[in-house]
Amino acid sequence: NAGVMQNPRHLVRRRGQEARLRCSPMKGHSHVYWYRQLPEEGLKFMVYLQKENIIDESGMPKERFSAEFPKEGPSILRIQQVVRGDSAAYFCASSPPLGTGGVDTQYFGPGTRLTVL
Amino acid sequence: LAKTTQPISMDSYEGQEVNITCSHNNIATNDYITWYQQFPSQGPRFIIQGYKTKVTNEVASLFIPADRKSSTLSLPRVSLSDTAVYYCLVGTSAYSGAGSYQLTFGKGTKLSVIP
How far apart are CA A104 and CA B93, in angstroms? Predict the structure, then answer.
């Protein structure tokens, strides 16, 4: 069973460009979460999605950031008009449907390291 | 969300047992205690979770005293590959309906294992 997949692993963008980060959850998982991590810091929650629905986007910046999890295909975190402050590691996590047993363990991908020049 | 406090860093020699303590004085009745491990350039990995007393799995043990205001992650006989950042998280299960889906990470404890 493949783990959470993220691509690209490294992404370099110039200021003003768009960044698209992709996340494929573990097989059977219908919940996707995005987190951002700055150097020497813990992860900060950004958004929680289910298929075709944004459940909680309380951690997302109000502008330039958007996320989707379409019926088919990976979840996408999109950052428009990137600025240097967007440079960070972006992690995706997935979890199985609630109520299927166990506790709220989230399984993390390897992350995408975004560098804005 | 209950605030957690853990040491910023710890050093240990290979083969020793390492105990990392986390303080969570404001833990709520429905809160669980969860530990994640993060290697450099990787995403966090779930290690262990508990509610009270002691939990043990193939990787670690988690000790939780009766008042639940702290918890101790115990790693037996560490090796160089255990060098990582360890995060203590406290929160309510979303299954209960009152919990949060968000995992709240502090800065963690950076464990360095020395040969």
Answer: 6
Strands A65-68 and A43-50, sheet pairing: unpaired
> What's the token pair of residue B95?
């299954």
pLDDT in tens, B49-61: 999 989 999 999 9
DSSP 8-class letter at B5: B
Greatest CA span in chain B, whole angstroms? Answer: 46
Residues of B within 8 A of A49 (CB-CB) are none
Q: Measure CA of the first residue to CA of the last residue in chain B; give whole Å.
A: 38
- Cross-chain residue pair B49–A40, CB shorter than 8 Å: no
The C-alpha atoms of residue B20 and residue A64 are separated, in whole angstroms, by: 39
Phi, psi of B84 (to 5 degrees): -175, 175
**Are the C-beta atoms of B18 and B109 separated by less than 8 Å?**
no
The series of mean pLDDT values per 10 residues for chain A, 117 residues long, is 89 98 93 91 91 91 95 96 96 79 75 97
- Chain pair A-B, CB pairs under 8 angstroms: 65
Q: Residue B50: CB partners within 8 Å, gap ≥ 6?
A: B32, B33, B62, B64, B71
Give φ, ψ of B42 to 5 degrees. Answer: -135, 165
A contacts of B41 (beta carbons < 8 Å): 110-111, 113
CA angle at A65 for the pair B93 and A88, rounded to the nearest 5°: 80
